[in-house]
Amino acid sequence: MKRPARLAIAGLLVAAAAQAQLDPATFVSLGASVLKVEAVKAGGGYSIGSGVIVAPGKVVTNCHVTEDAREIRVIKAGGRLVASAQSADREHDLCLLRVPAINGDAVRLGRADALAVGQRLSAVGYTGGTGLSNSAGSVVALHRHDGSRVIQTDNWFNSGASGGGLFDARLQLVGILTFRLRGGRAHYFAAPIDWLRERIDDERGFEPVAPLERRAAYWQRPEPQQPNFLKAAVLEQRGRWDELEALAAQWSRDDASDSEAWYLLGVAAHERQRFDEARDALQRALQLEPRAAPAWYRLGVVCHRLALRDCSKDALDRLKPLDADLAHRLAKALEA
Q1: Which CATH architecture has domain 108-194?
Q2: What residues does 69 pair with on adjacent strands?
Q3: Whole-number mean pLDDT of the chain?
Q4: Backbone angles phi, psi at 292, to 5 degrees
Q5: Does 31 have pLDDT greater than 90?
Q6: Where are the alpha helices (DSSP H) in 207-323?
Q7: At the topology level of CATH, where does 224-335 sit?
Q8: Is there a shared CATH topology between the 34-106+199-206 domain and the 108-194 domain?
Q9: Which tens digit of pLDDT belongs to each residue from 162-188?
Q10: Quick one: CATH architecture of 34-106+199-206?
Q11: Strand order in the sheet with 79-82
């Protein structure tokens, strides 16, 4: 799995909490639907990833797993089944494989747009390319992009898990594990299943398996060409608050309904000690997304600096049911 260099999360202060793992029976059941993918490269060697059965005879994985392949095999019950064709969406890094020998065990599909920050999720894939593994966690952020939301979680995964599944509590597939960012423990991203739904039954995009035309996905592009939420991550990591403010200000003008733009304005103003502006921007963000735990945390800190006790107490009360760890940290800050 490829990783963009030197990226961090923009203003997200969520600490990973201990989560319950899937029970053994459920894990075994999902293991029939989350498979290992082997892509035999045209130039020799092969790459390893994961895939999820989304319909009879169809498996989804990441295109960066299969892009150089002259042959693609999925492993099920110890047998290697050959993909006869694939349909590639390079922009979103989602490749749909036709594997005629797979007829069952398709997962139920959920919707990324129905998720909320703090919601518990399970990531299932071949982390390290060896055995199937499960990582429990929760939604850290939901980033608007191309008509849906890229899912950011603290569900740990590593090389080999690309193309694996992100499941909600009802075991519905809501995302495809795609990439992670360096640094921190809440930097894991999944493509929303919403991007795939309309393609599952569309046979027009399938072509025989062969190396794909070179094209970078949205997250693989040079920094200036990446989405705003990834550009902001770099600026925050480097402490470039003036540039972060300029980016967020333009973002908020382009899409005033996106809470993330206002949140980042609040982050930049807070870091530059402009607390009144930070409070106004954070409150605007929370009007648009009331369940944004990091925004409540930062608003509580800002109001504390402004000696606005009612505001900071309200932020703490609103934060408690959303993120117990952040609420504890805010309570400690308010005591100080």
Answers
A1: Beta Barrel (2.40)
A2: 41
A3: 89
A4: -80, 95
A5: no
A6: 228-237, 241-254, 259-271, 275-288, 293-305, 309-319
A7: 1.25.40
A8: yes
A9: 999 999 999 999 999 999 887 655 689
A10: Beta Barrel (2.40)
A11: 79-82, 69-76, 34-41, 46-55, 58-61, 94-98, 85-89, 207-208
Return d(Cα 151, Cα 229) in angstroms, integer: 12
Percent of the chain with pLDDT over 70: 93
- Domain ranges within the chain, ordered by starting residue: 34-106+199-206, 108-194, 224-335
Distances (CA, A) of 268 to 33, 186, 232, 264, 303: 44, 20, 10, 6, 15
pTM for this one?
A: 0.88
Tens digits of residue pLDDT in 224-279: 899 999 899 778 878 999 999 999 999 999 999 999 999 999 999 999 999 999 99
Query: Which residues, including other chains, have CB under 8 Å from residue 27's CB and lie 6 or more apart?
Result: 21, 124, 132, 134
What sign does the dihedral 158-92-118-184 (CA atoms) show? positive
Q: What is the 3-state secondary structure of 106-133?
A: CCEECCHHHCCCCCEEEEEECHHHCCCE
